[in-house]
Design brief:
Shape: globular
Structural class: alpha/beta
Strand content: 15-25%
Distance between the termini: 24 Å
Helix content: 25-40%
Number of helices: 5
Radius of gyration: 17 Å
Order of helices and strands: EEEHEHEHHEEH
Length: 245
């Protein structure tokens, strides 16, 4: 299949379905490096946004709406089989906006939108990073590097900090005045030990679809980085149960 710079790796023609994973603020697609390439024959496709990692020289997307406009076109060749979107924290917002944009343009839409640890758009902005100083943000990025199995590198932290500031600006200015429903299942995930967002705060998503499911998974805010089996099984089930046959 033709190279697509919007994915970290080339997609396969052998997959029975695809799960597109959106990174959150300040991160690139490699944040999912502990996830498997395949889940029950479903390909894990890592969305690579401009301005980071191998796309560091490209301009920032500026807003989630502008990003969705481009992504809906760029991902179209890959939407030829059942697919789902997954986004954790701020990564759930461009995932939602793209999932909303696709049916507006009469394009294939996801069988399921899976949002993890993120309040609904009409309750945004809601991100503790927005209140942190630059020094505190650098500490967070260094901690994330360790959580991902690496060590903080000053040069890499500086690059991550630059894109994080732009990502946070997009997050800071994002909010919908009222819910805008989508014609697909939404699966909302809460992590039992997550101090950043409560289970009750996630309930706003119930207004975004006629088919909304809420699940609680074991672990804290960053447990998803490890690709826990419970999460991977849920993603596989969401796609296989709801994909058209």
């Amino acid at each position: 299949m033709k190279r697509n710079r919007w994915l970290l790796r080339d997609p396969s023609d052998e997959s029975v379905g695809r799960i597109f994973c959106f990174p959150y603020s300040g991160m690139g697609a490699s944040m999912f490096n502990r996830w498997p390439r395949w889940i029950d024959g479903i390909e894990v496709c890592l969305v690579q946004l401009p301005g980071r990692e191998n796309r560091v020289r490209e301009p920032h997307y500026r807003s989630y709406a502008q990003l969705a406009d481009v992504l809906s076109e760029q991902l179209l060749p890959l939407l030829d089989r059942p697919f789902a979107f997954f986004g954790h924290c701020a990564g759930a917002l461009p995932a939602y906006e793209t999932a909303r944009r696709l049916p507006v343009d009469r394009l294939p839409h996801p069988a399921s939108l899976v949002v993890s640890a993120q309040v609904a758009p009409h309750h945004c902005p809601h991100d503790r990073f927005l209140a942190l100083t630059d020094e505190e943000l650098l500490d967070e990025l260094a901690d994330l590097a360790v959580r991902r199995g690496g060590q903080p590198d000053p040069a890499m932290l500086a690059l991550s900090m630059a894109v994080l500031r732009e990502d946070l600006e997009a997050n800071r200015h994002y909010r919908r005045d009222e819910p805008a429903p989508v014609p697909m299942n939404i699966s909302v995930l809460h992590w039992a030990d997550d101090p950043e967002v409560t289970e009750a705060e996630l309930r706003g998503w119930e207004h975004y679809s006629d088919d909304v499911r809420f699940d609680v998974l074991a672990g804290g805010h960053y447990e998803f980085l490890n690709g826990p089996k419970t999460l991977l099984a849920l993603l596989s089930a969401q796609l296989q149960e709801r994909a058209p046959r």
